[in-house]
Amino acid sequence: MQAQDKNKTDNLPKLGRFLNKIDSSNGVRFIFIFLITVCGILFVIDFFIQKHDHFTVENLYGFYGFYGFVMFSGIIFSVKLLRTVIKRPENYYGVKAIDQEIYPEDELEKVDHGS
Amino acid sequence: MVHNLTTPTAFWFFYSVILLLALPSGKLRSSFLLMVPVLAGIQLWNLPLGNLVQFKLFNFDLELMRVDKLSRIFGLIFCLAAFLGNLYAAHLRDTVQQVAALLYAGAAIGAVFAGDLITLFIYWEGTALASVFLIWARRTVAAYHTGMTYLIIQIGSGVILLVGVALFFNETGSIKFELMSLTSLATWLIFLSFGIKCAFPLLHNWVQDSYPAATVTGTVILSAFTTKLAVYALARGFAGTEILIYIGAAMTLFPIFFAEIENDLRRVLAYSTNNQLGFMVVGIGIGTELSMNGAVSHAVAHILFKSLLFMSVGAVLFRTGTCKASELGGVYRTMPRTAIFCLIGAASISAFPLFSGFVTKSLILDATAKGHYYLIWAILLFASAGVLSHSGIKIPYFTFFSHDSGLRPKEAPLHMQVAMGITAFLCIFIGCFPATLYSLLPYPVGYQAYTTSHVINQLQLLFFALLAFALLMRSGIHPPEIKAINLDTDWIYRRFLPSIITKVENLLDGFIFRTRELLSLKLYLVLRILHILLGREGAVARILPVGSMVLWMVILLIITLVVVFIGF
C-alpha cells in the first residue's frame, strides 16, 4: 500500500475526520493538560476518602499514583537496557521463522480507502 | 453400564463437521458455523448439573459430561468464543480453517466436561491436533515449521499427561479427574502437562511462537481455548496448590518486559496473554472461594478482551498486510471504529473501572491481600501497571495513533466490525453489571468491586502510569518501535540445540568418513581375493568350466535335499 498525501482528509470517514481534528498539536496539548488535571484531582481526593485497606502502605496518601508512576517508568527504563542485550535483526532465525516473512496476499483483502 | 441423559456438547461440534462439508462453501456455510456454537450454548444453558453421560470402556468408567458450576461457565464462554471467532471469520472460504475451528472448539469443550482423566487426555490431544491447522492454513514455509514446533510441544504435553494418568491409575486405581496433591510422580507429571499448556515460565514460548504465525482469524480462535483449558484443568485438579502462587507471580512479571520491546503486535498480545494467565494461576494457587471466583471470572473476561484485541490488530493486518508496530501508526483516520473497539479492549485488559478487567482482576488482588501475601500483592500491582504499558497503551497507540505511517486502509469488513462490536459490548457490560457474571461463578460472590476507595486507587494507579507514559514520550525516552526481534527461550530450540546437533553431526561425519575409508580398503582386499579365485583368470573359472558348474550344482542340490529332509 502506497503512502498517500497525509494532509488529505476529505475521503476519511466522519469518525476518522473527527478524531483527526483532536490529533492536532492543540488537541494533544489539551489531552496532556487534561491528564495532569485528572491526576491532580485524584491525588487530592485521596485526602478525603475513607480508607479501609489491608496494608499500611495503602493508607499513604497517593500511594497508588506514586506506585503506578514509578513502576511504569521503571519498566520503560529497564526495557531500554534489556533491548540492548536481546535485540537481534529480523532475519536472525532465517526462513523457518515468521519474523521476516511477508503475510500471504491471498489471505488478505487490502483496500486503500477511497480507491 | 451406559448412563446417557444428553448428547455431550462436544459431539454437536463433531457432528456438524459432516454437515458443514455437505454444505456449499459460501454464506450458507458461514451462517451454519454461527449456528453451531449458539445451539451448543443453549443446550448447555438448559442442562441440569450432574454427571450426565457415563459409559464403560474396558474396565474404565468414562464420564463425558460432568456439568457443575466450574465446568459450565468454561463451556459457556467457549461456546461464546467459538461464535465470536466464527463471526469474525465469516469471510473465509477455507474449509480447512472452518473444520479446524469447529473441531478445536469441540475438543476444548469436551475436555472441560471430562469427568475422568482418560477422556481429558483424548480431548487434550484433540485440541492440539485441530488447532495446528489454524497455523498451517497460512500455507507458508515459516508457518509449516512453526506449526510443527507447536504440534510437538502440544502433543508432548499430552504424552506427559498420559504417562501421568497411567501412573496415577497404578497408584490409586482411579481415573477420576478430581482435586490432586503434588505428592507423587504421577501428579507432578499431570501438573507439568497442564503447565505446558498454561505456558508456565520457561515453558511459555509456544504461545509467542505460534499465535503470530496463525492466520488473521486463526489467532483469534487460538487465543481463546488452549490456555484457558489449562487454567480450567489447574482449577479443577490443583486448586490451593501453593507453588502455583509463585509460578503465577513469575508469569505476570517477565512477559511485561518482553512485550514492551516486541515489534510484532500479535506477539505483544501473546506475551500479554501470558501475563494475564499469571493472575489466574495466582488465584488458583491461593485456592479460596474468593480467589477461585477471581481466576474463573478473569478467564472469562480475558477470553473476551483478548479476542477483541486480537480481532482489532487482525483487522489492521487484514487491510494492510502487516501488524508490526514499526510499520503502522495513524490508521485510526480510516479505521476509526476498529480503533475504538481496540481502545475498549485495551481499557478492559488494563482494568479501568466500568470495564470487565476491573471487576474480575480485583477479586484476585483482594484474595492475595486477604491471604496476607504481601509480596505477591505488590507484584500483581506492578504487573497491573505493566499490562497498561503493553496492552493498554502500546497496542492501540502504536497501531492506530502515534506517528502517521501514511497508510489509509479501508475500515474492517462489516462482519468483523459486528464481531468486535459484540465483544466490546460484552466487555463493557461485564464491567458495568458484574452481578450477571458473578452469578455464574463456582462460589457465591460477596465482593463489592465498586467502592470509592477501590475505584480511586485503581484510577490513581492507571492515570499516573499514563502520565508517566506521556512524559516519557514527550521527552523521547520511551523506546521507539524498531524492526527487530528479541531473544527468548525459543533461542534454545532455534539456535542452541541445532548448533549442538550440527557439531555432533560433523563429528559423526568425520568418524563415518574414516571408517568408510578403512572399510573400503578391506573390501578391496576381499574383492581382490575373489577375483583371483573366481575371475576370468581365476582358479575356479580356469579349470574345467563345465565340470565345475556341474559340481557346484550338485553341491547346491545336496544342500537343498538336506534342508528339505530336516524341514520335514
Report on this structure.
The complex is a heterodimer of chains A (115) and B (568). Chain A has three helices and one strand; from the N terminus they run αααβ. Chain A is mainly alpha-helical and 115 residues long. Chain A is flat. The mean pLDDT of chain A is 84. Chain B has a three-stranded antiparallel β-sheet, with no helix packed on it. Chain B is globular, with a radius of gyration of 30 Å. In chain B, 55% of the residues are buried. The model of chain B has no long low-confidence stretch (mean pLDDT 92). Classes of the chains: A mainly alpha (115), B mainly alpha (568). At the A-B interface, α1, α2, α3 and β1 of A face α6, α10, α12, α13 and α15 of B.
Features:
heterodimer; A: 115 residues; mainly alpha; 3 helices; 47% helix; 2% strand; B: 568 residues; three-stranded antiparallel sheet; two-stranded antiparallel sheet; 6 strands; globular
Secondary structure: elements and pairs:
The complex is a heterodimer of chains A (115) and B (568).
Chain A: H1 14-22, H2 25-45, H3 63-86, E1 87-88
Chain B: E1 2-4, H1 9-22, H2 27-46, E2 50-51, E3 53-57, E4 60-63, E5 66-67, H3 69-88, H4 95-112, H5 117-136, H6 141-172, H7 185-197, H8 205-210, H9 216-237, H10 243-261, H11 265-286, H12 289-320, H13 336-349, H14 356-370, H15 374-400, H16 414-432, H17 434-439, H18 452-474, E6 485-486, H19 490-534, H20 539-542, H21 545-567
Antiparallel strand pairs in B: 1-3, 2-5, 3-4
